[in-house]
Design brief:
heterotrimer; B: 755 residues; alpha+beta; Aldehyde Oxidoreductase, domain 4; Aldehyde Oxidoreductase, domain 3; 3 domains; 7-stranded mixed β-sheet; 5-stranded mixed β-sheet; globular; C: 158 residues; Ubiquitin-like (UB roll); DNA polymerase, domain 1; 5 helices; 16% strand
Amino acid sequence: MVKVTLSSGTAQQFTNGVTEVNVEAKNVRQMFKALEANFPGLGEEIQTSMSVAIDGVILPDPFLEEVTEASEIFVLPKIGGG
Amino acid sequence: MNEQPKQFKWVGTRAIRPDGVDKVTGRAMYGADLSLPGMVEGKVVRSPHAHARIISIDTSKAEALNGVTAVITAADMPVADSKPVASGEAMINFKDLANNVLAREKALYEGQAVAAVAAKTADIAEQAAALIVVNYEVLPHVIDVMEAIKEDAPVLHDDMFTGGVKPKPEKASNVANRVEFALGDADAGFAAADLVIERQFTTEPVHQGYIEPHAVVADMNPDGKVDVFCSSQGHFMVRAFCSQLLHIEMSKIKVTAAEIGGGFGGKTTVYLEPLAIMLSRKSGRPVRMTMSREEVFRGSGATSGAAMTIKMGATKDGKITGAYAELYLQAGAFPGSPVGPAAMTAFAPYDLANVKVVGFDVVSNRQKVVAYRAPGAPISEYGVESVVDELASELGIDPIEIRSMNGAKEGTQAAYGVKFGTIGFQETLDAAKATEHFKTPLGPNQGRGVASGFWFNIGGESCAGIRINEDGSISLTEGSPDIGGSRASMALMAAETLGVDYNKIKPSVVDTDATGYHFVTGGSRVTFATGMAVVEASKAAIDELRARAAQIWDVDVEGVVWEDGHAKPASTNVGDFEPMSLAELAKVANKTGGPISGHADINAKGAGPAFGTHICDVEVDPDTGHVTVLRYTAVQDAGRAIHPGYVEGQIQGGAVQGIGWALNEEYIYDENGCLENAGFLDYRVPVASDLPMIDAIIVEVPNPTHPFGVRGVGEVPIIPPLAAVSNAVAAATGVRFNRLPLSPPTILAGIAAKK
Amino acid sequence: MAKHHITTTINGEEAEYLCEPQETLLDVLRDQVGLTGTKEGCSSGDCGACSVMLDGRLVCSCLVLGVEAGGKSVETIEGMADGEDLHPLQQKFLEEAALQCGFCTPGVLIAAKALLDTNNNPTETEVRYWLAGNLCRCTGYDKIIRAVMDTAADMRGA
């Protein structure tokens, strides 16, 4: 199981306010699928419009990365800049 | 951090930039400097109304004018689906972008493009533009963010329902989106505090103020191929957006990056480019379009005006126990203010257990905001850094000390979730505290302010090619428009990696046909991400050079190392060979397999967050309300300064933009929602005589994921000045204004109210 | 509208052009003469990007008509270097990273040269006020002011 932490705003929309959710996944692709299966709309929302931070590294296009029980995974909005 | 020699030969030197001579002699070609045979000039017709339905557009008189080659309206443009499309960093709704480029049903702000013409001369184009009759039904408008969220405010989009809330609202409103971040329990945090301060702040809309107006030349061939030459922060962005808007395959559009006369985020989208292509298609000629300064102010760029509530609580000894922020940011005519990053950065410099931030993205009848240096962060961090200053002063704690006590460190979890890796916030505070500036006494009517700032920095797609020429010189290609000396940084990193003379390397920013996709020059990413691609391409070239030497020496490639620009035997066991220089290997490349090169096409990850701390001294004239900045010091963690001169320049320039935001700059609207100060005379950016020297102090806490430790520098320096200046003004006057800009009338009114 | 035939001297060479009566010197330089080093930032005399010398006087070329240059001498950024030899100001701007995007640079250099031609020992305040009509949005002016002061010091020493 991997633990995925959502912002409180995202949690209110998709997980009844639960900010830490656990899903079975070995990589980000599986994580998205599992999130979508458990919380319809969430996996899709993250893939299309959000970034994921894994162990402190913000990834705007996460997909191939491996995740483990020890991974610190946060979902956050995409970041650009001037 | 990768194994690197402690001392660098090229990295960290102040080399002359490769594009420098062109830029001091007037040779460099900016957006408006290209002329093509047969070229005609384009001109945009803009809405004079802040909010109006377009009933009809009559172009017949304009089309009949002698010398006019084309007239276009939204009817000439494909209809875009209302659907967000991932495009680089952000989601782009191409229906909104299409409407922003050329209004279809409604004009949503004064200055929005509604039609465009092309004619043989700029004069004729202007006459033709005046002959286009647009019949409008003027609608009620709203500009101010807090007015726009009211129940009875005019609604800009009747199909827009607030996102980010559950259940979905049934009524359309101007609130496009809501974001929320929380850690722990903010209310419990306030209950544990000895002192709680809650303040409301406002900031006014400001413009990036690049000196070069938007400019483009587009030339469409009868076979559908398009050449575009324009000033932008990303020619791949221009290609992608024009392709989507005009339904032209990307491979048919070649965009060449002109030299760019400043952008600061404001040139990360398209305005004129799709119009110029459409006009060229209709005219059958190349079309040049340039914005006037007035058009720049009314119809491009600019960032949000904002309103916010900031609440923070601390114990007597200065430990911050709770924090809350509520942010309202103008998006302009279409959704997409920087409220997300504003919310994420607000409290990011601090290690807080109990924090909550709520943000609202609000549309109103202004131009669609576009990125401006650390989008959103100067606004939210202005409020937070003002309250931190007030906490310090109420509690009798030194303003740097309170930041040190509560400052984020490695392992701190930011309110937006992520745990920081190696960061240098504390180091900037220590360096600021150690300055002679911080210890110098002040005189009457003078005050000192301190503030800090945080920005994430980003990575993203970049490519680089290293081609080793027959004579041993090196052509370096990449595709990040050079907005402030990045060619020099790229060449320095290549020289360091390859072990060759900097002057042997010629870097070029090449067109969209000649390299792979690059994300825009923005987010402080180029030295980090494109730099990473350059280092990887250099390493690939080194591997090839080693392989060539191995062939010549008849040894395994593992037996060849690359040191100081030479292939050398790894040990005496390999054999007794004279080292071969890069130039020697290049000379015989034809015998060892042909030309030698190295390439890297990457999506750079692991951008290093950066922090800055600024100290500002001001003197306030109690009779006029005029604020003079007496002294300014800006400290920043750059990770590694590849070219310290241009790093200092970023810090100094960003600080001065922040000073302008704090003191002078604001959009002023009349009762019809029309901009009253669309020129440099009335929209006053800082001039040389307004300012002292800006002392830039570079701190280097290397980013472990970059081969040289680069973090990125461009964004952070605009963040602290807003609060540093206003904290200094508060110290000088004894009045906390909690609004920007601190123009003389505001200051005088505040001083009078205090009396 | 009849065009005017204007004869003038640009960067020491005799030049002639045809221009409309309402055309600015800036537009003439850029569009008729092909000297695009002089930049347009505002067309209202507020930014200084179009600074040129007209008969030895520093002017915003967007506020001068093309016809007004008739019989006069115009100096632009293209005439500042002597062949391959950069003017000391140009050299110093490169050495001290006094430009970022480079768009305001031609106007700043023309204005700074006008100052140093008459005052080779300006104070920081004099330089700041002299260049107050040349907007730069990238540098915060720090390195520009230093480069001008350092050039003046070099020229005095030489």
